[in-house]
Amino acid sequence: MTSGPWLNSFEIDGDPNGYISLDQMGRKEFRLNSTITYIGAETGLEGMLSDDALAAIRTVTPEKLPTTDLVSVPTVLRWFVGRYGVHTPAALIHDWLIPQPSTPEIPGMTNEYADRYWRFMLDDLGVRLIRRWLMWAATAARTRWQRDRTGKLLLSVWLLASLAGIAAFVFGLIKGNASVIILAALAPLVFAPLWGRQYGAGIVAAYSAPWIVPPTVFAAGGYVVYLVGEWIISGLWPSRSGSQPFRYEDF
After folding, report:
1. Are strands 30-32 and 22-24 parallel, antiparallel or unpaired?
2. What does the pLDDT read at residue 30?
3. Residues with Cβ within 8 Å of residue 19, at least 6 apart in sequence
4. Which pLDDT score is estimated for 165?
5. What integer pLDDT is reported at residue 89 of this predicted model?
6. Which residues contact 66 (CB under 8 A, 6 or more apart)?
7. Nearest-CA neighbor of 138 among 84, 212, 86, 88?
8. In whole angstroms, what separates CA 73 from the centre of its chain?
């Protein structure tokens, strides 16, 4: 019997060997047709939510999640994580749980809890340590940014501090200044509290930035060159249908 990639972590329509059914409704929107149940050992929220709430967050149905865009990943970051993959069922449950209070039947649920649950589901799926913590950090950053103006401000301050820390670290290496290198290396621990209760995500994001940012910037530069070239070529040779030949949203 063929087994799904999430055999020990999820059941699809009550079948551990089931397949997720999705209908594409738009360019990036899908309709869920399957009931997905997380059967992993831990949610990461034990002791934080009631037993009834813990049971409720394990199952998402088509009624609970009418539409989804799967995993919202910027184009320039898809070299690191795709919009779908082994993490798809976990992403669909997480998509249903945010933003709060979209699930009033689950008292005590917060966006931070949903993000933590996402990380534990990734762990149960066997997603490697660094990758799953970075995926968690990405959702946590969105949570902080969408919270309110204060969240945006604190995240912006953290970003500026991170860029300054990277620059100081590089400067210290070039000059051979051990004191600057040590201070730059410890800076993420100082500024991580700007992420609030998700300070761990701030630490992960800061220490991963030096090797995540360069290839991402390179990919972004190449993507911009492609967009400009596509726009020029599409203008010279319009599509035969006469419709708009090129739109950024298509990608």
Report:
1. antiparallel
2. 92
3. 4, 12, 34
4. 85
5. 94
6. 31, 32
7. 212
8. 7
Residues with pLDDT less than 50, the chain? 1-2, 246, 248, 250-251
Nearest partner of 114 among 70, 156, 58, judged by Cα: 58
Q: Which amino acid type is present at position 14? A: G
Contact 192, 144 (CB under 8 A): no
Q: What per-residue confidence (pLDDT) applies to 198?
A: 86
Task: Yes or no: say if 127 and 71 are a contact pair by the CB < 8 Å rule.
Answer: no
Query: In the prediction, which pLDDT does 39 show?
Result: 95
Burial class (CB in 10 A: 0-12, 13-18, 19+), 202: buried
| 108: DSSP letter | T
End-to-end Cα spacing for the chain: 36
Q: Is the pTM of this model over 0.70?
A: yes
Q: How many whole angstroms separate alpha carbon 143 and alpha carbon 100? A: 10
Extract long-range pairs of 190-196: CB within 8 Å, 24+ residues apart: 191/157, 191/158, 191/161, 191/162, 191/165, 192/158, 194/154, 194/155, 194/157, 194/158, 194/161, 195/140, 195/144, 195/154, 195/155, 195/158, 196/112, 196/144, 196/151, 196/154
DSSP H helical segments within 75-110, as ranges?
Answer: 88-97
